[in-house]
Design brief:
The chain has 216 residues and is an alpha/beta fold. The chain has 2 domains: 3-116 and 165-215, 3-Layer(aba) Sandwich (Rossmann fold); 127-161, no CATH class. The radius of gyration is 17 Å and the shape is globular. Helices cover 50% and strands 15% of the residues. The structure holds adenosine monophosphate (AMP). Adenosine monophosphate (AMP) binds at residues 9, 31-32, 35, 52-53, 56-59, 64, 85-86, 88, 92, 161, 170.
Length: 216
């Protein structure tokens, strides 16, 4: 089963993707995470990528395609992919279809997390990621404590693009470039709308029910 997690920035795609990974034998592919890894590893390309991300724009399709090639061809990941933050425009959606087809796979469902803009802002501005274990917390909704997080609090990090100005641009980019993909998936009968305003566990219950219905 291959799943696309769809929604605006801050909709909870990363958090729900992690829940799906924990409960099903799937592998999360976050193009945002792959780009952040690239920024750490590769000084020249990394600087270019960072300046685009910090403006709230989309990185070029070529860069994204290069990062994904190994994943599509990896036999261990065959039919086990959850895409978080990909595709981000129609070209990428078409590219995803043709890459999956090439490796004899397809998309099983597209889960669209719907969240109001006001809540998105609060979720993004409060977001903290542990650079040691990768867990995601939120200062307002789910602060890291000694009960839910075993790493030193010094590892908690705010993303450089999680500020008010960049978030506004990211949201605009989402409306102009990413949202049009929904029709593409609707026409293929792959789309499931999910109320992304609920608590993490409640959202996951909805997702679990959809995945279970696809498995039978
Ligand atoms: P995310 O971690 O998904 O919120 O992505 C952070 C930023 O990385 C985005 O605002 C874009 O600048 C860039 N990015 C992530 N995924 C993609 C993608 N599929 N295509 C183009 N740019 C992307």
């Amino acid at each position: 089963m291959n799943i696309v997690l769809f929604g605006p920035p801050g909709a909870g795609k990363g958090t729900q993707g992690d829940q799906i990974v924990k409960n099903f034998n799937l592998y999360k592919v976050s193009t945002g995470d792959l780009l952040r890894e690239e920024i750490k590893k590769n000084i020249n390309l990394g600087n270019k990528i960072k300046s685009i991300i910090d403006k709230g724009l989309l990185v070029s399709d070529n860069i994204i395609n290069d990062l994904l090639i190994k994943i599509f061809s990896d036999k261990k990941l065959y039919n086990r992919l959850i895409f978080d933050g990909y595709p981000r425009n129609l070209e990428q959606a078409r590219n995803l279809d043709s890459c999956l087809k090439k490796y004899k796979q397809k998309i099983s469902c597209v889960l669209c997390l719907n969240v109001e803009k006001k809540l998105i802002l609060k979720r993004i501005l409060g977001r903290q990621t542990c650079i040691n274990c990768g867990l995601i917390f939120n200062e307002y909704f789910m602060p890291a404590t000694s009960k839910n997080h075993s790493c030193d609090p010094k590892f908690l990090n705010k993303r450089s693009d999680d500020n008010e100005k960049t978030v506004t641009n990211r949201f605009e980019t989402y409306l102009n470039k990413t949202l049009p993909i929904l029709d593409f998936y609707k026409e293929q009968n792959l789309l499931h709308h999910i109320n992304g305003m609920l608590e993490i566990d409640q959202i996951f219950d909805e997702i679990r029910a959809i995945i279970a219905s696809l498995e039978t």
